[in-house]
Every structure is written in structure tokens, then in C-alpha cells.
Model the fold of this input.
Amino acid sequence: MTTLLQTMIPVFGLMALGYVSARRQIVDQGGVQGLVMFVFTFSIPALLLSSVATLEVPADIDWGFLVAFYAGSFATWGMGIFVGRVVFGRPLADQAIFGLGAAFSNLFLIGLPVVLTALGPEASFPMLVIIGFHSATFMPLTVILVQAGRSDSGGFASRMASVLADVLRNPVIIALAAGIALNVVGIGFWPPVASLLDLLGNAAIPCALFALGGSLYGYPIGGEAAPSVVLAGLKLIVHPLLVWVIAVPVMGLEGLSVEVAVLMAAMPSAVFVYLFGARYQAATEVAARTVLLTSVASFVTLSIVLALLG
Done:
């Protein structure tokens, strides 16, 4: 229990500090958004670039953990879409956001600190592999569904090209690709550059958690609660359970990589779910409430998952 508290209290304490700072107007929403941009544009890419470029790939890695994570993720994504369509009768664009809320984990703002704190630096490789495919898969699929559900879909091809360009310009994707390339060719960093990356990377986790707490204060929480409650159940309970079932009973996997996959699946819905809903004006309030509800409830559910993982 002591180790569990040592993992969870600093993470959610920083989130609470960000929330209180935004609520008390110590930091306004403009400042919070600026911090979010710093984290996503500079700090996290620096952390990923440095980590991936210097990462030692295990010789005996079993890639089944990646199959288990994404099989469980896409199954939960499909459930979210089904719930949006059949249970709540939402249009296709809203269904896409429902699916994203059910399956798109907060791997950066909460996943990185929780996994590294709980499982140690040995968890870096499977964690970074999972992160590498996350946005590159769910983001284009969600945009395709959103655009397909719109009546003004005449420019569908151009929109898809724009989405692809956005993915390729994403700082996280660029950092991961550059890190992999440097790792493969065995080129290290010039010491001053390495120090710069370390300074930026060390700021990623505390700034990300503080920014997430501040962002949660600005989300609308009024309105119909049932969709968000259902999506929260899919995200925090069904998603990690499916990943575990696929990885352990079905595929017979074990070890640290499985623990990372299950823990990453147990993360709350990412802030990206709300931002995506707001950008495309699809199920925006449901997305906001889902992010807020899963972020708060994950203190309990992540504690349970960590306890079950030992």
C-alpha cells in the first residue's frame, strides 16, 4: 500500500494543484493552454527523442503485448461506437467521438508518469512502442468517421490529405521517427544537445500533470451524464480487462510487457478526446465529461490495477 500511495499521490497531487490553480485564477486558461502547447510541442518530444534514441532493444522481446494492447483497444473502440449508435442514437460523427472516449488512453499526461513510477525504467521500451502507434492509428480513423458522417463530404479526399499531413507534422511522431532512426544507425547526441534534451524532457511529466489538472477545470460538466458514465466504464474497466484477457489467457503472455500493456489500457480518456470533439463539433459535452470523469475515477481504478499487478 505504501508503494501504491507513493506512485499515485504525486501524480494526482500535481493534477489537483493544476486544477486548484486554474480555479483560483492563479493561472488562467490561456496560461494552461500555453503550458499544454509547451508540453506537446517541446517537452514530450524531447523526452521521447532522447529515450528512443538511447534505448536498448531487448533481444528476446515478445511482440505479442503490442497485438494484445491494440486488439483490446480496437475492440473497445468498436464498443464505444456501438453504444453511441444503438444505445444513444447518435449520428456517425458523434459515434466516432464515443469510440475515441472509450479507447483512446491518456498515455502522455498520465501514462508516462504512472508507468515509469510504478514499473521503473525497464518499462520504457514496451511503453514507447505502444505510444508510437497510438495517435497514428486512432486519429486518422476518427477523422474518417467524422467526415463520413457529415453531409458536406464533397472535400473528403482533401480532408484526408490534410489529416495525413497533420499526423506527419505531429511533433511526437517526428520525435519518435527521429529517435528510431538514430537508434538504428547508432548515432549519439552531442553533449550540449543531450543536456538540452534532458532539461526539456525532465519538465515533461510535472508540466503535463499540472496542465491536465488546469485543463479539467475548463470542461463543461452539465447535461446528460449517462453517455459519459457508460464510456467511463468501457475505458477504465472493459478496456484493461480485454487487453489482459487477450494477452494472458488467450495468447499465454507474461512478464513486464504485459503489465505495461494492461496499465496503459487502464489510463483515463485522453484530453485529445475533448479537443477532437470540440474541433469537429461532435459530442463535445460528452467528450468533456468523459475526460473529466475518467481522470477523477482513475485514481481509484488505477490503484486497483496496480494492486492486482503487484
Remarks:
- The longest helix spans residues 284-309.
- The chain has one domain: 25-309.
- The domain at 25-309 is CATH 1.20.1530.20 (Na+/H+ antiporter like fold).
- DSSP finds 14 helices and no strands in the chain.
